[in-house]
Amino acid sequence: MAIELFGFQIGRKEDDLPPTVQSFAPPPNTDGALNVTEGGAFGTTVDLDGAAKNEAALITRYREMSLQSECDKAIDDVCNEAIIFDDTDGAVDVVLNDIKQPVSIKNRIREEFVEVLDLLNFNNQGYDIFRNWYVDGRIYYHIMIDTKFPRDGIKELRYIDPRKIKKMRVEKRDNKDTNIQGNAQVSAKKYDEYFVYSARGVSAGNQGVKISLDSIAFSHSGLMDERNSMVLSHLNKAIKPMNQLRMLEDATVIYRLARAPERRIFYIDVGNLPKAKAEQYLRDMMVKHKNKLVYDANSGEVRDSRKHLTMLEDYWLPRREGSSGTEISTLPGGQNLGEMDDVEYFRRKLYESLNVPVSRLESENQFNIGRASEINRDELKFSKYIARLRSRFAELFYILLEKQLLLKGVITKDEWADIKKGLRFDFLEDNHFAELKKSEILRERLSLVQDVDQFAGKYYSQDWIRRNVLMQSEEEIKEIDDQIGQEDNGEDDDADF
Length: 497
Fold this sequence. Notes:
Largest sheet: 4 strands, mixed
Low-confidence stretches: 8-12, 16-25, 39-52, 306-312, 365-374
Structural class: alpha+beta
Strand order of the largest sheet: 3-7-10-11
Number of helices: 13
Mean pLDDT: 76
Shape: elongated
Distance between the termini: 65 Å
Number of domains: 3
Strand content: 15-25%
């Protein structure tokens, strides 16, 4: 089997291997790669037909949305729940309980994962990294190594703007391996995958740098558009509620400025004056009687500014001879200006679109620390949503850890396929919630043990009770037994003394 890393391949090339699996359908596009069918001749320029351009514009829109106050608050709630730091433990740790490997290999995996976190500076910038991934819907890192000494592992991880890079998937035509099965044409299609980078942004007509697939660490949200051609961010479903909220707030401000004050209507009798003279007479009366005082918010001064017109001015209307003559009436201001139900509705809708509990929107709500059974359904759904986000984000750790272990020769490519199945990453939970949850679970387990203890040795063994009631793993059982033995030996020594 060939081993390919960073554009270098050791062993037999995949192109030289005989086709074994054939299908009439291309592989599913779950990573937003641009599918290109190879023609008679293939050059270095690729016509993207605006697909990546639209994707870049969409990422820019996501970032603009993240600057809005309501959206920023919701994003902050999500990121604070997903990435948690404390003074003693790191934000994320690797769990190797289900991996059947020697202890030495497990220790090396833990050490290399700590080094990966150091390369990312995750303990200091973990929140920012997760926020960038959540807002943009994807994150890219360039894996940099020393080509002369690849055994030294990854030297640097450099962040890449997702608007400047695009994954390509080029179909290689090979008519030799084509056959007919039923009514379908089945062929052993081969695909060449790589990344294209351009500092000006990857778009139609731009030439970019072709980068090996193994040189880029890539993680995305897993959300795709209806055509399965672009990766979407979790903010995508909040675009419409966000625009509706902004539009409604602007309309509310304009309405209140226009209708809040009471204004007067001046009916001026112009008699039988011609139109031009009547208009001049009306303007003279306006200048003579109106008081145009303007408050300057920058300087704090009140000044007279008769040359500026505002939407809050009084109305001046002419009247002809024979009418009621000169009259002054008052136009009342708008009513029910204090109602904000429509604005609150769209604010709640925005929070619901981002899967954040609406209860967190209300600042007067206090966080009550109680029993685990008192957690409401919205918070439970939110915690599961955070768990799904962590699982998708952890794909970045899988890629980086794989590259680090293969480069340093800790494991082989085949061994990694088996290790990855049992490998998982444990993110630090919120301290208060986690402690309450653990204490509540332990209290219930110990209470159950007291009820089952009378049947120990008759219907259940001690080992069964520890495994199925206390939910202790083999490592925990061995560790606890050793600690109990050490404590017993210590008591005996003290008694002899």
